[in-house]
Amino acid sequence: MDTSYCLRCNREIVAGHKSVTVYMFAQTVGVRPRQKSTAQRICFCPQCSVSLAMGPPPEGALNIAAWNMIRDLVSSDPTLSQAAWEAMRDIVGLLPSGQTDAAPRQAAAGGYFEF
Ligand SMILES: [Zn+2]
């Protein structure tokens, strides 16, 4: 399996899961034979993609170029935003307040959520 990690939060991105990948390579122009660098693959998880796209432009010409591409993708299809929200909902679901009555009230005893 080809596993990648989000450049921003280092979250593991399993191959085939929703994410944004920026491919980058350089090549010479006007030089024969043409030289090509190896390609770099930079991945972002849905949360970071949406967060980056919604955020202010970064510093640096290359960063701005990547930011514009990510904004294009995020704004053209709601799938990534949905994936980001779903991931957030999963995190919220793990909180003790989301437990049903059947769950033991250990959280309250530990003073984590006391009202
Ligand atoms: Zn991330």
Brief summary of the model shown:
The protein has helices spanning 46-54, 61-76, 79-93, 106-109, and strands at residues 4-5, 12-13, 20-24, 40-44. The protein has 115 residues and is an alpha+beta fold.
Write structural notes for this entry:
Helix content is 38%, strand content 12%. It has 115 residues and is of the alpha+beta class. The strands form 2 sheets. A two-stranded antiparallel sheet has the order 1-2. Strand 1 and strand 2 form a beta hairpin. The longest helix is centred in the middle third of the chain and has 16 residues, at 61-76. Mean pLDDT is 84; it is low at 103-115. The structure holds zinc ion. Residues 6, 8-9, 11, 44-45, 47-48 line the site of zinc ion.
The SSE order reads: EEEEHHHH
Category from helices, strands and their pairing: alpha+beta
The order of strands across the largest sheet is 1-2
Q: How much of the residues is beta strand, in percent?
A: 5-15%
Count of β-strands: 4
What's the helix count?
4
Instruction: List low-confidence stretches.
Output: 103-115
The main pleated sheet reads as: 2 strands, antiparallel
Q: Output mean pLDDT.
A: 84
Helix content: 25-40%
Principal-axis shape equals: elongated
The whole-angstrom Rg is 20 Å
End-to-end Cα distance: 46 Å
List the bound ligands. zinc ion
